[in-house]
């Protein structure tokens, strides 16, 4: 029994050490966000420009229509508000930062450290996003004051569904762009591809208009793709569009994509680092 106690204590200490380093990474992300807080504040408020333009366009579209594809103008306002907030919290530009590391040679510093590169960036980016909640909160308050009717119909069960969808969408979105960043092992100049991917991904993700308004063929195909299970799913869940049965179905799709993208990331990192070390 004494031996078992000693082994269990040793196991706990090992795990504490293992997770403490990632907690430190989260703190680093938090500190970076605070260091560049003015930049983040300006970035959030600049988001109001495309938001205002979209609402003006939708206002014109609904001038002669009470409903478009099941969306009233009030629902579209709520959709745009939530998409603005969730897009800020889930969205990432980690692919740009990792690509710069690979290109500059800074990636070598991870090879000598007992730390998983993917987990390091996930932890650091999570700390950054936790800090961003400070700036998103007043943004939410402003939007609520501007459009109170758009948020009054949100129920507690919808918030729970949205939270579950949010956590999984955040991990899935990170893995998508992490895998994308590893292409930098094989291509010297990839910034143009990243810019094009960001634009296309945003459109297919429902950031510019709801997926429900896209062609029926794409709606059916996208049900099993990560575009429909990311930010769009989170927003739709909070709006109460899905039943709990549909929410569980979408959650299963998210878990499937997370598993696939996680395996792909491990394989891509292993093969990419071999090429990096041989140069």
The SS-based structural class is mainly alpha
**Radius of gyration (Å):** 21 Å
Total number of β-strand segments?
0
Determine the number of helices (DSSP H or I, runs of at least 4 residues): 13
What are the low-pLDDT stretches, counting only 5+ consecutive residues below 50? Answer: 1-17
Largest sheet properties: none
Oligomer category: single chain
Q: Into which percent range does the helicity of residues fall?
A: over 70%
The overall pLDDT, averaged over residues, is 78
Ends apart, CA distance between termini: 53 Å
Our estimate of the beta-strand percent is under 5%
User: What overall form do the CA principal axes indicate?
Assistant: globular
Describe this structure in words.
- This protein has 279 residues and is an all-alpha fold.
- The protein contains 13 helices and no strands.
- Helix 1 (2-35) packs across helix 7, helix 4 packs antiparallel against helix 7 and helix 9 runs antiparallel to helix 12.
- It is globular.
- The N and C termini lie far apart (53 Å).
- The model is unreliable at 1-17 (pLDDT under 50).
Q: Which key terms come to mind for this protein?
A:
mainly alpha, 279 residues, 0% strand, 13 helices, 77% helix
């Amino acid at each position: 029994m004494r031996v078992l106690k000693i082994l269990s204590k040793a196991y706990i200490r090992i795990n504490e050490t293992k997770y403490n380093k990632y907690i430190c990474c989260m703190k680093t992300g938090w500190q970076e966000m605070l260091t560049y807080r003015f930049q983040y504040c300006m970035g959030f408020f600049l988001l109001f420009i495309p938001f205002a333009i979209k609402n003006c366009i939708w206002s014109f579209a609904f001038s002669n229509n009470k409903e478009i594809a099941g969306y009233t103008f009030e629902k579209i306002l709520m959709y745009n508000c939530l998409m603005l907030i969730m897009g800020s919290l889930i969205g990432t530009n980690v692919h740009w930062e990792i690509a710069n590391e690979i290109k500059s040679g800074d990636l070598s510093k991870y090879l000598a450290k007992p730390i998983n590169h993917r987990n390091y960036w996930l932890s650091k980016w999570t700390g950054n996003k936790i800090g961003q909640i400070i700036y998103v909160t007043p943004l939410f308050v402003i939007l609520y004051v501007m459009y109170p009717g758009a948020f009054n119909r949100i129920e507690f069960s919808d918030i729970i569904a949205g939270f579950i969808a949010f956590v999984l969408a955040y991990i899935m979105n990170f893995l998508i762009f992490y895998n994308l960043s590893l292409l930098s092992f094989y291509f010297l100049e990839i910034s143009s591809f990243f810019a094009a991917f960001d634009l296309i991904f945003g459109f297919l993700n429902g950031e510019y208009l709801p997926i429900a308004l896209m062609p029926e063929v794409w709606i059916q195909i996208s049900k099993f793709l990560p575009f429909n299970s990311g930010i769009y799913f989170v927003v739709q869940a909070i709006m109460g569009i899905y039943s709990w049965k549909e929410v569980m179905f979408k959650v299963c799709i998210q878990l499937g994509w997370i598993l696939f993208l996680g395996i792909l990331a491990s394989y891509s990192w292993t093969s990419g680092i071999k090429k990096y070390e041989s140069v």
